[in-house]
Amino acid sequence: MTEPLLAIDDLQVAYHRIAVALHGVSLRVMPQTIVALLGNNGAGKTTTLRAVSGFIGLDDARVIAGSIRFAGQRIENQLPHTNTARGVVLVPERDKVFPNLTVAENLTVATSRRASTTERRRLEALIFQFFPALAELRLRLAGLLSGGERQMLALASAIVCKPELLLVDELSLGLAPVAVEDLARRVSSIRQELGITVLLVEQNAGVALAIADYGYVLENGRVVLEGVATELRGHREIQESYLGQASGEERRSYRALRHEPRHKRSDG
Hints:
- The protein has about 270 residues and is α/β, with parallel strands linked by helices.
- About 40% of the residues lie in helices and about 25% in strands.
- The strands form two sheets. It has a six-stranded mixed beta sheet, sandwiched between helices. It has a four-stranded antiparallel beta sheet with strand order 2-1-4-5, covered by helices on one side.
């Protein structure tokens, strides 16, 4: 049986040494798959991603229990550049690009010891195939790009680092639905063409589960549900909690719906 590329076991994370944000999160990401990490604001999705990438230390947070293994090696509480050199590359939720640099310069400053000069040139050529709009915008300042173009550039900057595991935080943030669906298709194509493994944090469950192989649902720092993406899409509680099919009601947590009598849910 193939071993997971990423294995998280009983992970606990604390901010400022006192505020616990993750309470024993465990998950698996198999090689060359797309795994979606779903949940509402404050569920612990971004904290999980930043713990894997190493950027959690910049938020005065640490892994206080549990383990993170990438390709069999323990990586919790390592520095971001150390994990990037291993092949773990983060596309963050915010501050995705350098606004005062051009598109071409953003790609140039994205460095990693994993990619040789020849490999970087090959990856840049592939990037302009995946994102042809960026080829036409090479000399434009990143600060003048649209939200969708910035997201493309953020993904492109990550790819030139030759990731083995690509961590994508909130692909859909601030973007129109059409742009989000287009970017999701491109992420799926990148996985297929380059064999990159993707862990995708996303509030838009419909978009995430459309391209994912497997999914986990987080609430209050805990995994409350997991399964094959096709099964999660058909799960009634997931539809009502995360896919906006709650018959006009305010969306409720998966946990609340799970313990609520079904006749009450259908009363409207």
